[in-house]
Amino acid sequence: MDNNNLTTLSRIKDSDIYYNFKKSPTAMVSSFILIIIFFCSFFVEIVTPYNPFDPSSLSLMEAFTPPSWTEDGMAKFILGTDGQGRDMLSTILYGSRISLIVGFSAILFSLILGVGLGLTAGYFGGKYEMLVMRLTDVQLTVPSILMALLVDGIARGIISREMHDDMAIYVLIFAIGISEWPQFARVSRAATLVEKNKDYVSASTIIGVSNLIIMFKHILPNILRPILVIGTIGLALAIIAESTLSFLGVGVPPTTPSLGTLIRLGNDFLFSGEWWITFFPAMFLVILAFSINLLGDWMRDTLNPRLKK
Amino acid sequence: MSFLKIHNLSVDYKMRKETVYAAKEVNIEVNKGEILGLVGESGSGKSTVGNAIIDLIDEPGKITNGSIMLGGIDLQTHTNNTVNYRGKKIGLIFQDPQTSLNPILTIGEQLIETIQTHLDLSKEQAKNKSISLLKEVGIKDAEKRFDNYPHQFSGGMRQRVVISLALCCEPELLIADEPTTALDVSIQSQILDLIKKLTRERNLAVILITHDMGVIAETSDRVAVMKNGNLIEIGATKKVLTDPKEIYTKSLVSSVPPTNKKISRFVIVEKENELNTKHNIKILNRWTKTEITDQNLVQVKNLSKSFEDNFFLENSKNSVMAVDNISFNIKEGEIFGLVGESGSGKSTIAKMIVNLFKPSSGEIFFDDICVTKIKKNKELMKFRRQIQMIFQDPYSSLNGRLKVKEIISEPIKLHNPKISKPDLDNYIFDLLESVELSQTSSDRYPHEFSGGQRQRISIARALATQPRLLICDEPTSALDVSIQAQILNLLKDLQEELNLTILFISHDLPVVRQMCNRIGVLKEGKLCEVSNTEELFLKPKDSYTKELLHLMPKIESIYK
Predict the structure, then answer these.
(1) Nearest-CA residue of chain A relative to B462?
(2) CATH number of the domain that A253 lies in?
(3) Which residues of B touch A203 (CB under 8 A)?
(4) Which end of chain A has fewer CB atoms < 10 Å from its terminal CB, N or C?
């Protein structure tokens, strides 16, 4: 029992999650891929020699260079170039940074909104709970893409044209976030209902702890597991939603292209034979979303006490 | 030659970090017509032995050594043997009658299915056989109830059905794994009588697995005591319980609360905790001790509480009166006991006194202030500070995400926000020491502690606000007897040193007798009787009290 001197690191190494992680090749491979993608996207300036958004680097001479392993390929452009002579790999990495930022922010937004509403609804109950839960029901009847299109449309009406390009990314985050929150609200409400009847909550009430502290200090840490799981799977959904919207042309402006924008731009060249311009961003998106989903799947299996052997 | 012979049985569970030896070279023999009690505390391996006989050991457990002979046939050599014998020659009764019957089949279907699996009988014959079985286990109107679903039976009746299921293929060996633990006292004695009767009439060999020494004393012919997978002692029940040879058995017997007399302290032979010194209550220095006057600290007047499910229907007719017009007083400095079977409303009363539930009608006075009418938060806080509660389940009563010191400091900081950091640490250490935990415990998380130690942490948390009234809601019913004895000793000591007033809620009459000055007996939300402890046990007035006292399993019955 004398393990007071355990550092956080050894505590993690000792935990069941780490043990399960080491045993699961799926989790190892997918998180390995994700770490590489995250690293390359966020340190893209260091990783790549080209900056596709620097006008001086544009070279129309090198436009439509196919991938390096094909006949006309050039060694310095591994995945070829697009119509303006920009290196595809660099462009993709810049694009995935935008996608990841939007995805993370959107999921964080809906997590805070959803957990906040779900936790309070589960804790207080009564008419307030009824109202919140019916609101989630209404929200769930609207398809998320439609919701996002609606928000985007309204935003275009309110925000002036010049402002719009700067504001586009925030509108996108809000639009995706607002369509994802009911998941979080439902899960956190259900988990709160279980936790609030446990004795430790009663004990705190008897001591006289205020509702707010009970909710956030006592209940919230105990319901984080399921929220973390749907948050991870939600992240993949958010990234895909972002790409879909950008593909449809209502997402981020082409001056700061995300993965979806790249796929849309490349789509124009598909029939003239320059397949790589749309294929690689699309593949990249698939790998990204797939890895996140696999990791989320693994987390759901590991963190679920009912599946424990 | 005995009927069942377990020879050198070892069962290992290979876990991630270590191998758990659930049974180590256990040798047990059971004859026909006798009941062998298998007793031990949680984790002692008593259920493992039972499960090994019928090959129900879960992964990653494995029988690594030994043999099990049933009537001269080795069950280990042919795996098919066990499968063929399970249900046919060996009958099983589980602890929880709620989950051991399939809720979507009628009991008749379940009986017929079991009978036809093992015996070559037509459906008609099987039906007749099951009806006669149901009659044998004491179910009235067996023909009518044959087509009922499990939920239409009460807990005790359901356990009878489970027994009839276990008996339906004329087994020769019956394994009962805690068959009465989930049942109330009055039903427990009926079920035990039934098992005794069937053993005699059918000449069965029975293994009765239980943690309850009273049940063992009243039911079994021989007893086997287990600890940490080892068989400690085996012999005739009377001999083992009255004249135990091993230290462990002695400590187990001495921890059982006697039913026939009141003792001042439990004799503790083996101690769970590292602190063995006579514990000092340093928190006394901080405690403003209340003088014991002959005043009522708590007055409960005509208290009622009904739970109604009026989500869809405003006027629900089937609202349940959990507490029905109850009045009693608790004097300052006494331990007042509330006893009752499950559903008698004892926990509901506790929750109303601590203001977790609002009463439907009636009033509760604490120190002459009506607490049910307090509206202002500030006044409520003053009152909260003086009443604290200890819960039944030591696993859910502590927040697993907080360290022990954070758990204990929460009430201190809340009621004394100005306390300095070193003073706070000292106070936490003092509290931990007064519940006999070491100072180093403060940096650990609750999951690193055993059930008894967690209950000590709960007590420390409850004492942190220096309450005048401590409500203990079944504080030891989730614990093993030896741990129970230690916790009860601790509560007694604290009560004497700190002049605490305690409301002690339990279903366990012997425990209540040891702890309380006065006792109230509850039945279905009504208070049957309130009197002094000795008076209640020696001269009960109410017929329900008499029945309860008569039915409780008595370890002393062995001395007769």
Answers:
(1) A207
(2) 1.10.3720.10
(3) 389, 391, 397, 458, 461-462
(4) C
pLDDT tens per residue across span B51-102: 888 888 877 788 888 888 887 777 777 666 666 777 778 888 888 878 888 9
Angle B436-B441-B447 from CA coordinates, rounded to 5°: 110
Is A278 part of any domain? yes
Which of residues 447 through 486 in chain B touch A, CB cutoff 8 A? Answer: 448, 458, 461-462, 465
Query: Which residues are B390's β-sheet partners?
Result: B472
SS (H, E, C) B457-518: HHHHHHHCCCCCEEEEECCCCCCCHHHHHHHHHHHHHHHHHHCCEEEEEECCHHHHHHHCCE
- What residues of chain B lie within 8 A of the CB of A221, using their CB? 399, 401
Q: Give the closest of A199, A204, A206 to B396, CB-based.
A: A199
Question: Which of A129, A196, A199 is the mutation pick for testing B, counting most B CBs within 10 A?
Answer: A199
Whether residue B506 lies within 8 A of chain A, CB to CB, comes out as no
Q: What's the domain count of chain A?
A: 1
Distance from CA of A89 to the nearest CA of B (A): 44
Q: What is the pLDDT of residues B228-259, one digit of tens each?
A: 888 999 999 988 888 888 888 888 888 888 88
**CB proximity list for B431: less than 8 A, separation 6 or greater:** B283, B408, B460, B463, B464
What is the rounded average pLDDT for all residues in chain B? 85
B120 pLDDT more than 60: yes
Amino acid letter, residue B10:
S
CB environment B140-151: b (16+ within 10 A), e (fewer): eebeebbebbbe
Task: Flag whether A248 is in a domain.
Answer: yes
Q: Is residue A127 part of a domain?
A: yes
Residue B60: closest C-alpha in chain A: A309
Q: Is B401 within 8 Å of chain A by CB? A: yes
What residue numbers bound the domain in which A200 lies? Answer: 82-307
Whether residues A208 and B384 touch (CB distance < 8 A) is answered with: yes
Distance CA A195, CA A209 (A): 16
B385 closest CB neighbour out of A199, A208, A209: A208
Q: What is the ipTM of this complex?
A: 0.80
**pLDDT value, residue A84:** 77
C-alpha to C-alpha distance for B91 and B76, rounded to whole angstroms: 18
